[in-house]
Amino acid sequence: MSVFGKAKAKAEALFGRAEQLYGESHGDAAATLDGEAHLLEAEAEEEQARRATSRPDDDGLAGAGAR
User: Fold this and answer.
1) Cα atoms found within 13 Å of the Cα of residue 30, Cβ hemisphere only
2) How far is CA 61 from CA 28, 38, 58, in A?
3) SS3 label, residue 58
4) Whether 31 contacts 15, CB under 8 Å
5) Crossing angle for the helix pair 29-53 and 3-26, nearest 10 degrees?
6) Under 8 Å between Cβ of 35 and 23
7) HSE-up of 15 (CA within 13 Å, CB side)?
8) Using an 8 Å Cβ cutoff, are 36 and 20 in contact?
9) CA nearest 7: which of 49, 61, 60?
């Protein structure tokens, strides 16, 4: 994911959280649910980008020595 994509996902998460808080504070269930949806979508995009850049066979112990 590009820097632009990461920034977009972070902005989406912030927007979602703000909308969720607005809904909670004003008793607006629709805004609360919309905010949660935006937040979850952004978190899913960030997770997908993280998994795309990590290697599945990397155990994180490279160079630690085999014992």
Assistant:
1) 0
2) 48, 35, 8
3) coil
4) no
5) 160
6) yes
7) 11
8) yes
9) 49
CA dist., res. 63 & res. 50, Å (int): 22
How many Å apart are CA 36 and CA 38, to the nearest integer? 5
- What type of residue is 21? L
* pLDDT attached to residue 67: 57
Question: Could you report the per-residue pLDDT of 3-59, keeping only the tens digit for each?
Answer: 787 888 888 888 889 999 999 999 989 999 999 998 899 888 888 888 877 666 666
Q: Residue 35 CA to chain centroid, in angstroms?
A: 13
**pTM of the complete model:** 0.67
